[in-house]
Amino acid sequence: MKEKVWKDCPACGAHGSMVLRGNLIERVDGKGYKPFSVKGLEGYICQKCHDGILTIKSENRLRVEIMENRARQDSARIPASALIPVEEIAKSLKVPRQTVHWMMRVGRMPFVYVGKQRFPFKDKSKKIFVKGQSHKMSDLANIH
Ligand SMILES: [Zn+2]
Asked: Are 104 and 125 found together in one domain?
């Protein structure tokens, strides 16, 4: 995806108020997870209302870091019975196994670590979006 250059602020509507800044810190405070910060992000900040938009590259990095962080926290509490084999989820979604691995790697599918391997898991609260369709993680292991 092409990086967009922001000039006018989409939040307050100020013209030419957006300035590109590096070294931004985003505090992530998800429900049920220990808060943490992601540093070194880049984005456009409005000089008027101080609202900000991350660059696509930083947005992607943030998503990966959030998923990684949650995976590490979830790995300690998700029981083995909740794990979904990659093969099974690939069949449910009618995508190749590599797509499932890619989705986990880029932060598009929640997972936990078993050793160094990533596994998707059943969770009522988690949803993923594939080919324009939303799927509940808890349903995926049951659809064939
Ligand atoms: Zn603004």
From this structure: yes
Residues 127 and 102 occupy one common structural domain = yes
| Tens of pLDDT, residues 15-38 | 999 999 999 999 999 888 999 999
Distance (angstroms) between ligand 1 centre and the Cα of 50 equals 6
In the chain, the amino acid numbered 90 is: A
How far does the centroid of ligand 1 lie from the alpha carbon of residue 5, in Å?
15
Q: Determine, yes or no, domain membership for 10.
A: no
Ligand 1 center from residue 58 Cα (angstroms): 20
Question: Looking at the domain assignment, is residue 128 inside a domain?
Answer: yes
Distance CA 89, CA 112 (A): 14
115 CA to middle of ligand 1, Å?
45
CA–centroid distance, 26 to ligand 1, in Å, is 18
**pLDDT at 144 > cutoff 60:** no
β-pair type (52-54, 36-46): antiparallel
| Domain enclosing residue 93, as ranges | 80-140
Q: How is residue 89 written in tokens? A: 């989820």
pTM for the whole structure: 0.82
